[in-house]
Inverse folding.
């Protein structure tokens, strides 16, 4: 994530607004990282190791993004009081929906979730960049939108390398569900 | 309520090292995360809070937190929590469980907990089914939900927990959705702050026995009406509620129950006076 170049020259109120914007972006990346880590733990518990590992890597990637915001802003320590970002209703734009998991899911499904998250984050920042407001914030949002689009491209390439699940991938010969056929 | 330094406490501080065993995608994961976020937002330390539960998938929550916890007997979470709060009014006591635990076997305790109005926060993870025992209908199951265990559905009208809570005297009534963990955390924090008995129904899908509940994310919406402290208005709203309106639906002004002040133990000499002829 690229920080706006002219940060030092910004007026005091504009600098404060930019810092707040970046704190929210940081909260968003951190929430995405925590969500992937939760997903990884769920998969580990159900012995779906391949998908667990993938979610673990995604958590690390999001964590790195959060750390890079921290470095670029020159924050000595992680901001403590964070306001959760919500967009289009409930969740942070980059957080995977908790109800999407299945114990038999495959890496392809996990990457589909990641792709949707990156695309949503790109749309969020692009929408922010179009809003009226301090130029420094719009520039920062535009830079972030570009980065999220680049991440989405990477996830698409990753998706192309993993097998597509066969139809009926979720069939379990010994299902937990007594109501099944 | 003693509070911890905000800098030191994060939601992570309230998680124990025990990893949840719920099915992937189960709504209860998010409710756990909301409870830990709410406790952190309230600035509490783990030793200032207790989570009390009964039995069920949802009732496993105390094991996954680092606060005091009591994973009790099926349906008996509320009386256990009531006793705890009366004995230790300094603790923030959260009661957690499912619709089976709270409205079937624990239904009677639910009524009286509302009526007593002790300062508790009751979080019911409602999935309209008994998850832990493999998918039997619960009091909130739709009458026509067809399953091998209840072919053709039970044909029984659903229990309406929010209406019953209001009629029985609950002082705060809200509905949340597990798919909105931040919104649920806010509601839990508000419920804890509100004096008296606070009841939050969290729609928390059981993806294994009720996979169609994944669709709840498209059905829920913020309640379009402002919060009221008027029980008559709240009753009218709740009676016509379709079960998908989220937010605080009632915030009353009843004074919470407080235990009678403890008297100093009497001296033997003063006791003897009662027997003096
Ligand atoms: C006295 C007693 N009766 C019955 C049971 C069996 N039992 C365990 S959990 C449960 C129902 C759980 O349903 P719910 O409270 O909705 O929780 P969920 O598992 O759906 O989260 C039942 C009937 C029990 N443990 N103890
Ligand atoms: S059976 Fe249902 S309620 Fe229990 S853990 Fe699985 S999804 Fe959750």
């Amino acid at each position: 994530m690229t920080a706006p170049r002219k940060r030092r020259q910004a007026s005091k109120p504009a600098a404060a607004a930019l810092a707040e914007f970046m704190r929210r972006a940081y909260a968003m990346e951190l929430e995405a990282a925590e969500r992937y880590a939760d997903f990884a733990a769920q998969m580990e518990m159900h012995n779906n190791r391949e998908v667990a590992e993938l979610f673990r890597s995604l958590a690390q990637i999001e964590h790195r993004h959060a750390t890079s915001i921290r470095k670029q802003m020159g924050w000595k320590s992680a901001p403590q009081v964070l306001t959760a970002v919500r967009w289009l209703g409930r969740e942070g734009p980059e957080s995977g929906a908790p109800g999407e998991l299945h114990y038999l899911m495959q890496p392809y499904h996990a990457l589909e979730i990641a792709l949707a998250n990156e695309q949503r984050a790109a749309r969020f920042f692009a929408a922010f960049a179009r809003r009226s407001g301090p130029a420094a914030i719009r520039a920062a949002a535009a830079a972030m939108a570009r980065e999220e689009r680049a991440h989405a491209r990477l996830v698409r390439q990753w998706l192309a390398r993993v097998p597509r699940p066969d139809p009926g991938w979720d069939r379990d010969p010994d299902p937990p569900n007594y109501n099944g056929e | 309520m003693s509070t911890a330094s905000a800098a030191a406490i994060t939601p992570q501080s309230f998680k124990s090292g025990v990893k949840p065993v719920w099915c992937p995608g189960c709504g209860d994961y998010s409710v756990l995360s909301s409870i830990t976020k709410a406790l952190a937002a309230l600035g509490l330390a783990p030793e200032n809070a207790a989570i009390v539960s009964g039995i069920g998938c949802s009732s496993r929550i105390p094991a996954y937190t680092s606060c005091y916890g009591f994973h009790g007997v099926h349906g008996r979470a509320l009386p256990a929590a009531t006793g705890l709060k009366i004995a230790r009014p300094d603790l923030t006591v959260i009661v957690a469980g499912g619709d089976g635990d709270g409205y079937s076997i624990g239904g009677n305790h639910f009524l009286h907990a509302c009526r007593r109005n002790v300062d508790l926060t009751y979080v019911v993870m409602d999935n309209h089914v008994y998850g832990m025992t493999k998918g039997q209908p619960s009091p909130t199951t739709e009458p026509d939900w067809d399953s091998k265990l209840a072919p053709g559905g039970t044909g029984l009208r659903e229990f309406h927990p929010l209406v019953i809570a209001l009629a029985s005297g609950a002082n705060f009534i809200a509905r949340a959705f597990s798919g909105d963990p931040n919104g649920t955390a806010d509601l839990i924090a508000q419920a804890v702050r509100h004096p008296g008995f606070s009841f939050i129904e969290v729609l928390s899908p059981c993806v294994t026995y009720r996979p169609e509940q994944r669709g709840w994310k498209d059905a829920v919406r913020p309640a379009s009406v402002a919060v009221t402290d008027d029980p008559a208005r709240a009753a009218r709203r709740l009676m016509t509620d379709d079960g998908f309106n989220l937010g605080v639906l009632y915030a009353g002004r009843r004074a919470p129950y407080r235990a009678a002040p403890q008297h100093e133990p009497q001296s033997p000499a003063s006791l003897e006076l009662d027997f003096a002829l």
About this structure: The domain at 2-161 of chain A is CATH 1.20.1260.10 (Ferritin).
